[in-house]
Design goal:
By secondary structure, the chain is α/β, with parallel strands linked by helices. It has 2 domains: 2-33 and 181-265, no CATH class; 40-177 and 268-300, 3-Layer(aba) Sandwich (Rossmann fold), CATH 3.40.50.150. The chain is 35% helix and 28% strand. Keywords: Methyltransferase, Transferase.
Length: 304
Amino acid sequence: MAEEVLAGLTSKPKYCSPKYLYDQKGSELFEKICELPEYYPTRTEEAILTDAMAEIAALAGEDATLVEFGSGASRKVRLLLESLSIKRYLGIDISREFLIESTRRLAADYPWLEVHAACADFTRNVALPEAIEPKRLVGFFPGSSIGNFTPAAAEGFLNSLHRLLRPGSGLLIGVDLVKDHKTLEAAYNDEQGLTAEFNLNLLDRLKREMGLAFHRERFRHRAFFNAKKSRIEMHLESRIAQVLQLNGHTIRFREGESIHTENSYKYSVPGFQRLAVRAGFASRKVWIDDQGLFSVHYLTTSPS
């Protein structure tokens, strides 16, 4: 973490990986963001999953192992566990405490379910724990987290999942769609300021874990749609010219200079399908809500 953060903050332009937004507090804040009226992705994806559950169950088949990437509070996965023939579950997340808490709740609420947890950075090549037998798998990557990757990195990530999930497996993935700018920007600039707090919490984490010397009030949250790159960008912008210290390194900011903390790319359905095919997947089914806000795709590791 120290090496990655320092590399990002000493680059031009400055950046920090969005995975570091998700410490315990960040994960809790994100769960609250998902309840906001402006934040359409969560409720829209859940409605799509609920309506499509019979078709998803048919595609997933019997006795598959469900692997959730970025399990968070394991909220959406409950919809699958209550409808699919799943006997084994593996949650993978970078936030250790949050992961343990959520998987323990799953184990308590579903005593028939064999529950495993792996604290790992799934954006890098990961191996399945030895307890997960080499049977057919169904990957679950909800929330349009694929949008946090650049398209090239998204293809690389999907390619790594293709190798991990083995032949005959499936991947159920949520993908946010291109839409009007007003709707997109409102989702990342909520009136309650929870997204701003979520973003600024990154600096609090760096202060706590890496000794970053900073004044919170000297930064502000900015989020906007970059139409040319078809993505929402999230930044921490310096209100003034200032100098920060981090692990003995001096980091200088000009007024208005920012740390780029997150991207959220928006796709068309054909555009994402082409990306998935290049990564080795076959597109089996796609579901879209009536307003055309969000899509859920079922991909397979072979065209069967």
